[in-house]
Every structure is written in structure tokens, then in C-alpha cells.
Specification:
alpha/beta; Rossmann fold; 434 residues; binds pyridoxal-5'-phosphate
């Protein structure tokens, strides 16, 4: 998979190197030079297993770099879980992406990246330090995916007091090769500190840092797979609308890749909370990143979405090209909570706040547009409601049942290192620990 940097087309890499670089040296994000045409395969993939689709697609992408056997190992070490499609209303289905070890969609990217790194570190005899900023779910998925992996250390930065208590437990109770840095600041501060670390040549020469955030191309590729899998589960002839609850826009970018490989998608809907920078851009043509605001769907509280740069590359920086495949909508806090209440009282369905954002945006879209009965709207359900227990309890006055993987964490002791929101503090920590 030949890649170039979004900031300099001459800055090139291939998949198995790019996953260790994270960001390109010029600060850009890796982007594929071309899109293999998989439309024939996709057309005929109905009824295949998730892992069989994954093996085929990943091999198509990286067959110049590695063997079929190695792709098989990567895929099967990464995925012992798969998505499910479930109807939640007469018209809308959700794609449940929360059946992995930390009950959120980020398990797909994190597990695949961890198993790819393990596969390709094999004979490099190097130690890698994964550095990740998290608004909640990334960190826990990454921590869990890399737990106990040889020659890999993990450092997670999270904004103090701005992730749910359960998310914090997920980040801070694994121990072993996983360290949690509790930053006195916002998620954007954490993300900025991490970016600065990758841009610091001196630090990079001393510590072999690499990224596992959604900026890492190794996180995006596996996320494309479940869009194809969702299609494979439906009858031929359906016209899919995918609604993607979005923060850093990694998930959505992955869906756009799948479309570029030949997946038939009628429409993508980018659904955000009040952090509505991208929907606003789609309407006005002006992109104005700014500080994030807090909402009930906190994993999407992002004011400067990192994958916007990839989408700009994909669409030649032309807003009309975006609009041909993508529409945006943002959902207020009130509508998010009301959607959770309505689905609970009318259908007994407990939604997590992120999925609720996606469902409300989809309902509004269906109300405003006419479609025939082949239209199949699918909302990506990004997390188990048990991960956002406080918001859910507050909204519907009922406690979602926690999956065992989560409930067992509650009694474990939190271990974190508190630091300020200055890059220098992160640097000091890295230099003295690795
Ligand atoms: C990370 C996350 C999102 C946003 O995904 P992006 O790829 O950053 O757009 C949405 N919902 C949940 C539960 C998340 O953890």
C-alpha cells in the first residue's frame, strides 16, 4: 500500500513502515496513492464471514509488502469479535461495533494495529513506545489491544475529569506495559502535546515513539472493513446510507476509503454533537476549527478533527466534492437526550449517547428526503451504553447492564501520573521513563 503525506506528495511510505511512523515527518497524515478496485469482490461477498472479508481486503491492499500467511495471522490475531446489524426502528438499523474487548468501535482499529505491529516488529528487534491522546475510548481500546505485547510500551494521555469514571478505570487499571498520563487540560491539549512530541526530532531520536491514534493508517484500514461487512450482510440491491457519529472523523474517512475501493454507498451522513465544525464546513464552505465544547457524547468532543486533513486530500480541497457523497448534521444535547428517552420508552432500547446522535441525524435526514424502499439506513453504533453509564442513567433513569469486561474493572485501583498541559512535561516523562 503506497502512501504519501497529506502535506507533501513526495514524502512517501508503505503500510508496514507507516504504521510505526504514525504521522509523516512533515506533520502530515499518510494517505494512499491509489485505490485498488475491489468492486467485483465486494459485489460477491454476501454471506462471507467478517474475517474472510478482512483477509481478502487487507491482502489486496498490502500484497506488495507481505505474504498471504502474514495477513491471515494479522487478521485472526486481531479479530475474535465481529459486528452485528440490528433494527432499532421501522426504518433504521444500527451496526453494533461494540462487541470487542472494550465495548467500542475503536477495538477494531486498535486490535488490528497491535497485531500488525507485532507481526512487523518481529525481526526488527526494536522497542516501540506508543503515544496516544484519548477523549475516552481510543485510550482504552489501545491499552487493551497492546496489553502484554512484547517490545511495545504504551503511554496514554487523557484529560483529567473529562472522561467517564468507567473509561478512566479502563485506562488506568491495566498496568504492565501500559502507563496513563492524567493531563490537567482538555482533549485538544492532549492531542496537541502528542503532535508536538512527534514533531520533535530530538525526542524522536532518543525514544522510538509511534502513534496509535486515528491518525495512524493502521487504525483506519480495519475500520473500512465493517462497512463492507455490513453490505455483505444485506440482500443485493439495497442502497445503503451510512450515518457516522463523528469526532476526529477517522471512522468516516475509513468509510470513504471503502467507497473508493468499490463499495456501493448512496450517502454518508456525518453526524456530530455541538462540536459542529465539519457540518458547518459542508454548509458554508468555511472550515473554522476551535476549542471543543463538552457534550453528553464526550468521545466526539473534538474541536479540530485530525482526519479533516485526509478528507481534504481525498476531495481535492473542494467543498463540492465533499458534498457529492457526504452531508453533515449536528445534534443538540437536548435532542440527544430526548432520542435516548424516546427509544427507551417506546421500544425498550437503551442507546449510548453517540449512537443517539447518529440516530437522530438519520431520522431528520429521512424526514427531509424522499426514498424508495430499497434505501437502507445504517447508523454506526460506536459504543455500548454501559460505557456511558452516568449519561444513560441521567437520561432514562435506568442503569444499562454492564458487560462483564467492564463491570470487573470497577473494583480495581486507578494508577495514573498527573501532569500539566505543557509539552515539556510530556517530554520529561518520556525521557526519564524510556
Ligand atoms: C471515538 C468515538 C467516536 C468518534 O469517532 P471518530 O473516528 O473520532 O470520528 C464516536 N463514538 C464513540 C463512542 C467513540 O469512542
Amino acid at each position: 500500500m503506497k502512501l504519501f503525506s497529506t502535506r507533501d506528495v513526495n514524502n512517501k511510505s508503505i503500510f508496514k513502515d507507516a504504521i510505526f511512523q504514525g504521522l509523516a515527518a512533515d506533520g502530515g497524515l499518510f494517505f494512499p496513492e491509489s485505490y485498488p478496485d475491489m468492486s467485483e469482490f465486494i459485489k460477491n461477498c454476501h454471506g462471507m464471514s467478517f474475517n474472510a472479508i478482512a483477509e481478502h481486503v487487507v491482502y489486496e491492499l498490502i500484497k506488495d509488502e507481505t505474504s498471504k500467511e502474514s495477513v491471515k495471522r494479522i487478521v485472526n490475531n486481531a479479530f475474535n469479535f465481529k459486528p452485528e446489524i440490528m433494527r432499532v426502528s421501522d426504518e433504521i438499523s444500527i451496526l453494533e461495533l461494540y462487541t470487542g474487548p472494550t465495548c467500542a468501535f475503536k477495538d477494531y482499529g486498535a486490535s488490528f494495529l497491535a497485531s500488525s505491529m507485532e507481526e512487523f516488529l518481529g525481526d526488527r528487534k526494536e522497542k516501540a513506545v506508543i503515544l496516544a491522546a484519548t477523549s475516552g475510548d481510543t485510550g482504552s481500546a489501545v491499552a487493551k489491544a497492546f496489553e502484554g505485547k512484547e517490545n511495545i510500551e504504551v503511554v496514554i494521555l487523557y484529560p483529567s475529569g473529562k472522561v467517564s469514571p468507567l473509561q478512566e478505570k479502563q485506562l488506568t487499571t491495566i498496568g504492565k506495559n501500559i502507563k496513563a498520563l492524567e493531563v490537567k487540560g482538555t482533549f485538544d491539549d492532549c492531542q496537541k502535546m502528542v503532535k508536538e512530541a512527534f514533531g520533535n526530532a530530538d525526542l524522536c531520536s532518543k525514544v522510538n515513539i509511534t502513534s496509535a491514534n486515528s491518525i495512524n493508517i493502521g487504525r483506519l484500514v480495519p475500520q473500512s472493513l465493517y462497512y463492507i461487512y455490513a453490505y455483505s450482510q444485506l440482500k443485493a440491491g439495497n442502497e445503503i446510507i451510512f450515518t457516522v457519529p463523528s469526532g476526529n472523523f477517522g471512522n468516516l474517512t475509513a468509510g470513504l476509503f471503502a467507497k473508493n475501493w468499490g463499495l456501493p454507498v448512496k450517502q454518508f451522513i456525518a453526524a456530530t454533537n455541538n462540536n459542529k465544525i465539519v457540518p458547518e464546513f459542508l454548509t458554508t464552505g468555511t472550515y473554522s476549527p476551535r476549542a471543543s465544547v463538552q457534550t453528553p457524547s464526550n468521545a466526539m468532543d473534538v474541536g479540530a478533527p485530525s482526519n479533516f486533513e485526509r478528507m481534504m486530500t481525498m476531495f481535492d480541497s473542494n467543498v463540492d466534492n465533499f458534498r457529492n457523497v457526504l452531508m453533515g448534521d449536528f445534534v443538540s444535547n437536548e435532542d440527544t437526550i430526548k432520542t435516548m428517552q424516546r427509544y427507551y420508552s417506546e421500544r425498550g432500547q437503551i442507546l449510548d449517547p453517540h449512537t443517539a446522535v447518529g440516530i437522530f441525524a438519520t431520522e431528520r435526514f429521512l424526514n427531509n428526503n424522499k426514498f424508495d424502499k430499497n434505501t437502507y439506513p445504517i447508523v454506526l453504533s460506536t459504543a455500548h451504553p454501559g460505557k456511558f453509564v452516568e449519561v444513560v442513567e441521567d437520561a432514562i433513569k435506568v442503569s444499562p447492564k454492564l458487560p462483564e469486561a467492564l463491570s470487573s474493572l470497577l473494583t480495581k485501583e486507578k494508577i495514573s501520573t498527573v501532569i500539566g498541559n505543557e509539552y515539556s512535561e510530556l517530554e520529561k516523562f518520556l525521557l526519564s521513563n524510556y
